[in-house]
Specification:
- The protein has helices at 2-9, 12-19, 23-49, 59-87, 89-93, 96-121, 131-160.
- By secondary structure, the chain is mainly alpha-helical.
- The protein has one domain.
Length: 161
Amino acid sequence: MLEFAQGIENTNLSRTIRELLWVVPWVQTVHILAIAVVLSSIFMIDMRILNLNGTTQTMVQTARRFVPWLWWGLVVLTLSGTILIIGEPVRSLVNPAFWLKMTLLLIAIISTVAFQLTLRRDAGFWEKPHRAGTLTRVLAVGSLLVWCGIAVAGRWIAYAY
């Protein structure tokens, strides 16, 4: 992986990203704003699942409102994150915190897709008060923890290098 990262680091694009002093701060700003959008969307969906907020709306209405923000935020995060990785590939690609973040992100994306598929198949599943309700609350808390773990691991990249 180190050789691959060094190969990227030696490209003109990587050099340009590093040499233009405004690129990294601007891209990091966009990345942080996209993190705020994604985490806010997840928070609102999970608060609805936990019946702590938005209980006047159905789960379908809540998802329709916040899931698009989540996916568009992830697109922006992917683009800005790719630029940051190209700018400093050795710092990222050989860093265990980066790989922890990517693993948690994969889990989060799979769980989000599963949430959406479940919502399409049985919208009432997320509204059930009994045994399924306990499962959905556990999943909501787990979702919050995974997404927070992604943010912490992302920040940790700067310190674990």
